[in-house]
Amino acid sequence: MTTFPIPTLESASDEVRPLFEAIKKQLGMLPNLYAIIGTSARALRAYLNFQDELTKGSFNKKEIQAIFLTVSQVNDCLYCLSAHTTLAKMNGFSEEDIFALRLASITDKRLAAITKLTRSIVIKRGFPEADLVQNFFNIGFDRAALIELIALIADKTFANYVNNVVDTPIDFPVAEKIGAELVLN
């Protein structure tokens, strides 16, 4: 594949530059994912707005990281696995927790309900097992949370696909790979 150029703050269009500056101010850096999405000002603006709204919903920061790790593992996106491993550690997850989240095998009941349903939705392309949906509701989530979960899956799937298609250079400590035989079983 041809190398996909990574826009920089200096090379960004006048429309994208303020978005890049805001990202850099918030995160302390401009991750390559956002820079590449910034190839389209419209896509970056939409993505940032979508992400911002979803952080105000039914899931806390740890649960969002659990969802993102699960989706990224199923979609085999090493860039997002690396980024979200770093963020998960910043949110108090241990290395063991992170592997368990990636495999939807965490023992915490709430996180297990979230990650098992997330994994099923991604693997089965929107047709999860009914018992996993029911367990999600039994754990205390409502219908709005289910819709937000699907939106968070869409958010991370978009990022995974961008990274996988353009082979985004990883600008985080690289996460350890897990064999596909463990992920899809």
Outline of the structure:
By secondary structure, the protein is mainly α. Helices cover 64% and strands 0% of the residues.
List the helices and strands and how they pair.
Elements: H1 17-27, H2 32-37, H3 41-54, H4 61-74, H5 78-90, H6 95-102, H7 109-123, H8 130-138, H9 143-166, H10 180-183
Helix pairs in contact: 3-9, 4-5, 4-7, 4-9, 7-8
Please explain how this structure is put together.
- 64% of the residues lie in helices and 0% in strands.
- The protein is built from ten helices and no strands.
- The radius of gyration is 17 Å and the shape is globular.
Q: Characteristics of this structure?
A:
185 residues, mainly alpha
% residues in beta strands: under 5%
- Helicity level: 55-70%
Sheet of most strands: none
Low-confidence stretches: none
Q: Quickly count the helices.
A: 10
Structural class: mainly alpha
Order of helices and strands: HHHHHHHHHH
Q: What is the average per-residue confidence, as pLDDT, rounded to a whole number?
A: 94
Task: Give the termini distance in whole angstroms.
Answer: 31 Å
The backbone outline, from C-alpha atoms, is globular
